[in-house]
Amino acid sequence: MQYDIVIKSGELVSSHGRTRADLGIIGEKIAAIGHDLDGREVLDATGMLVFPGALDVHTHFQLPFCGTVSADDFVSGSKAAALGGVTTFIDFAIQARPASIMDAVRARRAEADPKVCVDYGLHAGVTEWNPDRVREIPEIFEAGVSSFKMFMIYKAQGWQSNDGDLFGAIREVKRFGGMIGVHAENNDLIDLLQDETDGADHPGCYAHAVSRPTVTESEAISRAIQLAEAADGALYIVHLSTGASADIVRAARLRGVNVHAETGPQYLLLDDELFKREDGHHFGTCPPIRKPADQETLWDRLADGTLEVLATDTCTFNSTQKAMWNGDYKSIPFGMPGIETMVPLTYSKGVREGRITLEQMIALLCENPARLFGLWPRKGSLAVGSDADVVIFDPTCEVTITPEVLATNCDYSPFEGTKVKGWPQTTLLRGRVVVRDRTFTGEPGQGRFLHRKPAFAPIDDTES
Ligand code: URP
Ligand code: ZN
Ligand code: ZN
């Protein structure tokens, strides 16, 4: 039997362990795992790690936000994804009320479909909750969008949901097996603390950290969890940033709440002293980067399985856009690039430095997000029958992160100067080599929109 492509003699990694074997690919699928496989094209992976293409389930490409549009569009962002070993991303279709959520899904697909260089899905961003929204839920699932996102902040953007909206939405989407994601920060408390911070003399944009202490996130997470528990539905906490918040999630999980959470490299590796620098506003994101003690707890909670997903919240603003802050920390275009460096940073700082195992890395970057977002086992898996989304990763490749070595459309990197050991060399998307020897060989439009299944069994507890 001759396969279209054989990836030869690599160390295949899953959350369960490692095995040295060949991977045979036919068309878009993984067709065999074995030894001495014969291929029309052979990719030598001797000395390499071979794992499933990672999923980044939290991106904002070409997002109109904070008075500008995020600088990575669907081409540059998804090309950066491929170069960084990410073969699936999930972005957001945010409802522009009074238009419907489905209008946003259609508009976002029209923007993304011709441009994407890897596969992608969409979360539905819900910005109002009323009977019209309830009526369109079945159509949204039908369209392959099985996860939702609501914001407990961003009043000014018109995105904020109140507690009743959040409770109602969790209760409704559980009937379809869907999950509500939430950006959990306490808007009122932040408003108060920002008023108190005004006029105080903080270096750089450190006032951003001062006005958003831990409680502004942990209280909101705690509240959202209680609402999900009362509604008996599924909740996903996006970009969780503090140790206290992670401990709240842990306690809830232990008592059986269907709550899940992600954190990202920025919260694991960057601390809020950076805000004091002259370019501190480059690191401005919501919630803010935190303290070294938070980083330690977040790593521990990744290792013990409380935090199940690593995702980047990529929302790139270049230095010209970031300069729009003009000295006012409340006007920073909030967000940072990250999709291209997630896999190498997780490997170098997580696995190499002994904070998580390689197997846990695959769970966090591939398997758990695929399961939680309705893509398992098509994505995130090297099993026979799965999409042949594969990363050939050189664990000895040393790179110093600078904007010049990245395809991300940004003139700085939040991780600039960081030395990593381990970088993706070759990436396959559904059996096609889209990155070869760290050079992009694919093309815009080759990615596909993914119709995602609900992650959970539907629960219908309405009274008959
Ligand atoms: O500051 C951030 N995180 N910008 C992106 C939008 C969001 O809140 O996720
Ligand atoms: Zn957010
Ligand atoms: Zn986000």
Instruction: Say which molecules are bound, naming each kind only once.
Output: N-(aminocarbonyl)-beta-alanine, zinc ion
The chain-level structural class is alpha/beta
* Largest sheet geometry: 9 strands, mixed
Oligomer: single chain
Rg on CA atoms, Å: 21 Å
Look at the structure and give the mean pLDDT: 97
Instruction: Tally the beta strands.
Output: 19
Number of helices: 13
**Helical amount among residues, as a percent range?**
25-40%
Strand content: 15-25%
Low-pLDDT stretches are: none
Which of globular, elongated, flat, extended, rod-shaped describes the shape?
A: globular
Compute the separation of the termini in Å. Answer: 57 Å
List keywords for this structure.
464 residues; alpha/beta; 9-stranded mixed β-sheet; 8-stranded parallel β-sheet; 19 strands; binds N-(aminocarbonyl)-beta-alanine; binds zinc ion
